[in-house]
Design goal:
Helices cover 24% and strands 37% of the residues. The protein contains two helices and four strands.
Length: 71
């Protein structure tokens, strides 16, 4: 999920966006909730966006995350 979010920003994991820049938590209904550190919040603002949507799925053999930055 962190890699998908970093790619949605267009940076990947790098100096501007560290693995520690984002946390994915579980919401009340099981939905993924994204928490960004100050660096990632700044990147979000620079892109004129307000939130990130994240979809997660998995099987016994695979895991997938899809992130979209929304303005």
């Amino acid at each position: 999920a962190k890699e998908a979010i970093s790619k949605a920003f267009g940076t990947g994991i790098c100096e501007k966006f560290l693995l520690t820049s984002v946390s994915v938590l579980g919401g009340n209904e099981g939905e993924p909730i994204i928490e960004l550190d100050d660096k990632a919040q700044k990147l979000l603002a620079e892109r004129g966006a307000k939130k990130i949507l994240l979809s997660l799925t998995h099987t016994d053999q695979l895991a997938q995350a899809f992130a979209v930055i929304v303005s």
